[in-house]
Amino acid sequence: MKNIILTGDRPTGKLHIGHYVGSLRRRVELQNSGKFDEIYIMIADAQALTDNFDNPDKVRANITEVALDYLACGLDPEKSTIFVQSHVEQLTELTFYYMNLVTLSRLERNPTVKTELKLRNFEQSIPMGFLTYPVSQTADITAFKANTVPVGEDQLPMLEQAREIVRSFNGLYGETLVEPKAVLPENKSCLRLPGTDGMAKMSKSLGNCIYLSDSADEIKRKVMGMYTDPNHIKVTDPGDTKNNPTFIYLEAFANDGHFERYCPEYANLDEMRAHYERGGLGDMKVKKLLNAVMQETLEPIRTRREELAKDLPAIWAMLKEGSDKAREVAAQTLAEVKRAMKINYFEN
Ligand code: TRP
């Protein structure tokens, strides 16, 4: 069996460092590992429209933003097919057939959908498109016969739902689709990076994100203003590192080389953490180190992004080429699906 990756993001905003450690950084590693036969990275504009149908300009504008973030982080169109979901209309057709294999109550029980519904205040007026997006996500994955889906933790219920649909399809119509598995970041701090304000998640609406496109000044301002441990008032007070976003970010980003370069009095994060926990280490020092680490990590990404942003027509051309290629692959799977379902009437 081939090793195939599919994953993607909704184009509803620029990507931030939570996306980076939660998924992007890993994707680039997997891309360059040489272990995968095919890699598909999808900009999920059709999915973004399920809750932004009244704001197509926002979705459109963010397609190039997300593509720039991808390329700046090291995704390479020579190795990964980067494409736009709505251009691959076979995905919509697959979704329609898969919908027969899912019940309304199953969709309503999907924990990620449940949380998102609450967040969006749909109350009694849930758009059907939104409720069924896990089915469309199954189409995204299966159209490319992906067995590996690198995602953040919040996507696990989507993968579970995809596996159920695949099993049900193969059981009814014969072995056709591939069951996918999720790949999560190994570093636990990367599963869900908290916001700079200490809230559980980075979110554009909360204004607590550090973006991949942020300037050096913006990064510094955001790091220096970060929430830490509210009970760590005097430097000598013992501090908490578990619920302290500055330490969680350091876990996600810092390596021993960073300590050597920017904070040589500690060999590694464990030593710094121990000092903070027993008292005697001020937030300022932690933040200064974190700022240095963030600057070093994000500077090359930002520079590359600025360079790429000078030629947006080239970005659209890259997306068009990727989308055309993706469409051919999806068309092949759709033909197999229709054959399995015995609705291939006009094939000889
Ligand atoms: N739901 C994903 C997100 O919010 C985007 C996405 C759409 C996706 N289809 C996918 C991710 C298929 C993995 C596989 O970012």
Descriptive report:
- This protein has helices at residues 17-33, 45-49, 56-73, 90-98, 104-109, 111-120, 128-131, 133-143, 156-173, 216-224, 245-253, 256-262, 269-278, 283-309, 312-340; strands spanning 4-9, 38-43, 81-84, 148-150, 181-183.
- The chain is mainly alpha-helical and 348 residues long.
- The protein folds into 2 domains: 4-192 and 312-340, 3-Layer(aba) Sandwich (Rossmann fold), CATH 3.40.50; 216-306, Tyrosyl-Transfer RNA Synthetase.
- The strands form 2 sheets. It has a 3-stranded parallel β-sheet with strand order 1-2-3. A two-stranded parallel sheet has the order 4-5.
- Helix 4 (90-98) packs parallel to helix 15, helix 8 (133-143) crosses helix 9 and helix 11 packs across helix 14.
- Tryptophan (TRP) binds next to strand 1 and helix 8.
Q: How would you describe this structure in keywords?
A:
2 domains; binds tryptophan; Tyrosyl-Transfer RNA Synthetase; 348 residues; Rossmann fold; mainly alpha; two-stranded parallel sheet; 15 helices; single chain
Itemize the secondary structure elements and their pairings.
Layout: E1 4-9, H1 17-33, E2 38-43, H2 45-49, H3 56-73, E3 81-84, H4 90-98, H5 104-109, H6 111-120, H7 128-131, H8 133-143, E4 148-150, H9 156-173, E5 181-183, H10 216-224, H11 245-253, H12 256-262, H13 269-278, H14 283-309, H15 312-340
Helix pairs in contact: 3-14, 4-8, 4-15, 8-9, 10-14, 11-14
The structure holds tryptophan.
